[in-house]
Design a protein that fits this description.
- With 639 residues, the protein is of the alpha/beta class.
- It has 22 helices and 22 strands.
- It has a 9-stranded mixed beta sheet, sandwiched between helices. The chain has a 7-stranded mixed beta sheet with strand order 3-4-2-1-5-6-7, sandwiched between helices.
- Strand 5, helix 9 and strand 6 form a beta-alpha-beta unit.
- The chain is elongated, with a radius of gyration of 36 Å.
């Protein structure tokens, strides 16, 4: 019966806190106990104690004690969340009580209000004994309540054994935050730190160890560790990636503490510990660009960005706004994404302060009349041309649309830039334009060829060429995330397929920098680092998700797809520029008369709507266009 009553009591008051009046009452009771002990102590060492003196001492000390209880609000703490500040408050309150009573004794000695020999005013011995005992009893009482709560009232949560990498301030804060988590019972089994002075010491009773002694299978298995938290907000990117890769190999879930600037209201909680994302493993050290060049290029200029609602176009817009153009015209044919961009820029920092310089235009680059209206209205000084169809399999099935947007859409914008005196035209191209094996890549190469031939003294044309960007619309990483959310499998086209990756901000940084350095007719290629195997990427994403039993399925190359991309064609060379991440490609130049004739013939063929004839003409314009895994492969057979 008693057991059932205790169970019901626990169930009923599990989420309750000890009322303030009860805490105050308990503290007063503890004061009485401490006072009795102090008076016994005084009687033992100071001789006879009269009842009159006891009552006066009690009255003085009680008034002082209640006053400081009220001033320091010692009874208001929520015991289950008691921390160092609460302990410190109790100690400081008791120190002030002792000092006040000591000061009363001092005044009495100086003024002789009451003869000292009567012991009516609390002596120094009584004061020190009383408040030392009171502080000890109050803290013991709180720790006892906390122990009872943790043992009997606290809801049992699933235990998670954790390693924290970093025994500095962020590691301590992360450790404290884990203790307050309401969903899991985190147990930190070890801190790791690279500082030799911290190794072999204890932090909150947890050992600080070297990485090699912790990040091994024996330690992980013996301690049943399932997570590692990287608690060094300013950690170097390469170091973070090395830790993450090692932890993933050990089957651990990897999380990290964000930079202090991202803490909510300047405070940190366990819910802010972030999962490591695949972008963190592919990201490279931030690229530094020469802002002076870009400022000189953009400041007080009117800028047109086509494809502004896309992944690259929208980031170019965000970055351009911070260089204070006179006006930026964001143009796209996609209504909903452009609306989303408009809402973001007009309502979020740091962009909304530039709202007066924004214009949003719905238009299609293949519509010459509409594009001319835009140029005539805004007269842009600079054009960043990011509008394009980019999905290889779709364009393989729809070459008519691919050519009209990617080739003739680019031609429209380029011709209008010359007609209306635009100073510079910067086109965003792709590594798929190099030795293209698909319609999409070939259309981008044709666009490169056209604008490269158009540079004049008045209008300079510049091409920037790079590979895949992390997280862009329709790219492999968002696809893998959707497949993971659905429980798998993750699909790769071929086990050996590799791709270059950059982050969107990094790519756009380089587009702006390359655009600023271009002098006309240039094709700039970006240093993409090491290529990434898509199969390995899929494995890493499964490890990061913490899911088990997710299959990776090989489905075969899609039409037009190739195993690897290139940044330079076989007959092209590259020349270094002043920026180590940007190279200038030396490419074959085409006579402008031949280009106009070829593109005119292509436009005539477009009216037939015959895909085979259209693609055949593309191959004659771009001889290196050799189809792969496509219905157009037969057009490459030599008679």
């Amino acid at each position: 019966m008693f057991q059932k009553l205790f169970y019901n009591l626990v169930k009923r008051y599990r989420h309750s806190t000890v009322p303030r009046w009860i805490m105050l009452f308990m503290d007063i009771c503890l004061f009485v106990v401490a006072f009795v002990v102090a008076e016994v102590f005084a009687w033992r060492f100071e001789g006879t104690v009269t009842w009159n003196a006891v009552w006066v001492n009690l009255a003085i000390c009680l008034v002082v004690t209640l006053a400081f209880f009220y001033l320091f609000k010692t009874y208001r703490s929520i015991i289950r969340h008691m921390g160092l500040n609460d302990i410190f408050r109790v100690l400081v309150a008791c120190v002030f009580m002792a000092l006040t009573c000591g000061f009363i004794n001092f005044l009495n000695n100086r003024l002789q209000v009451v003869p000292t020999k009567n012991n009516i005013v609390p002596s120094y011995r009584i004061v020190i004994m009383l408040y030392s005992m009171l502080a000890l009893l109050m803290l013991l009482n709180r720790f006892m309540i906390l122990y009872i709560y943790n043992q009997y009232f606290k809801r049992r949560r699933r235990e998670v054994n954790v390693i924290i990498y970093g025994a500095g301030a962020a590691g301590v804060i992360a450790n404290n935050a884990l203790k307050q988590d309401i969903h899991f019972e985190y147990k930190v089994v070890a801190f790791i730190d690279d500082d030799k002075n911290k190794v072999n010491q204890n932090l909150d009773s947890v050992p600080v160890m070297r990485a090699r002694d912790v990040l091994n299978q024996k330690f992980v298995d013996s301690k049943k560790v399932s997570q590692i938290i990287i608690a060094i907000p300013t950690i170097r990117l390469m170091h973070k990636q090395a830790i993450t890769n090692r932890a993933l190999d050990l089957g651990l879930t990897v999380k990290s503490v964000p930079h202090i600037s991202l803490w909510m209201n300047g405070e940190f909680t366990a819910t802010q510990i972030q999962d490591i994302k695949i972008e963190d493993l592919l990201e490279r050290e931030p690229i530094k660009i020469d802002n002076i060049n870009v400022i000189r290029e953009v400041l007080d200029k009117t800028v047109l960005v086509t494809g502004a609602a896309g992944s690259i176009g929208s980031e170019i817009c965000r970055q351009l706004l911070q260089y204070k153009p006179k006006q930026i015209i964001m143009l796209d044919q996609a209504e909903s994404p452009l609306y989303d961009l408009q809402f973001e820029l007009k309502n979020n920092e740091p962009y909304k302060k530039y709202v007066d310089s924004m214009a949003f235009v719905i238009a299609n680059v293949k519509d010459y009349a509409r594009m001319e209206e835009v140029f005539e209205t805004y007269r842009p000084n600079l054009v960043y041309h990011a509008a394009a169809y980019k999905h290889v399999p779709f364009m393989e099935e729809n070459p008519y649309e691919a050519i009209y947007v990617n080739v003739f859409g680019t031609k429209n914008v380029a011709d209008l830039a010359i007609k209306y005196g635009t100073e510079k035209f910067v086109m965003v191209s792709t590594d798929k334009a190099v030795n293209p094996t698909n319609v999409m890549g070939a259309t981008k190469r044709m666009a490169e060829i056209y604008i490269q031939s158009r540079s004049t003294e008045q209008t300079h044309f510049v091409t920037t060429r790079f590979g895949n960007v992390l997280g862009s619309n329709g790219s492999v990483i968002p696809l893998f995330r959707k497949q993971l959310a659905a429980g798998g499998p993750l699909t790769v086209t071929h086990k050996d397929i590799i791709r270059y990756f950059m982050t969107i901000p990094e790519a756009c940084n380089l587009v702006l920098e390359a655009g600023a350095m271009g002098e006309g007719g240039d094709i700039f290629v970006f240093d993409m680092g090491k290529p990434v195997k898509i199969y390995d990427l899929a494995k890493k994403m499964i490890q990061l998700s913490g899911l088990k039993g997710i299959e990776i399925k090989e489905i075969g190359l899609r039409p037009g797809e190739k195993l690897y991309e290139e940044l330079l064609a076989t007959k092209e060379n590259n020349i270094p520029t002043y920026h180590p991440k940007i190279l200038r490609a030396e490419v074959r130049k085409y006579p402008i008369d031949a280009i106009d004739r070829e593109y005119g013939e292509l436009q005539d063929i477009m009216y037939t709507l015959d895909d085979r004839q259209i693609v055949a003409k593309m191959k004659s314009i771009v001889p290196e266009f050799i189809s792969n895994n496509s219905i157009y492969c037969e057009l490459d057979k030599k008679e």
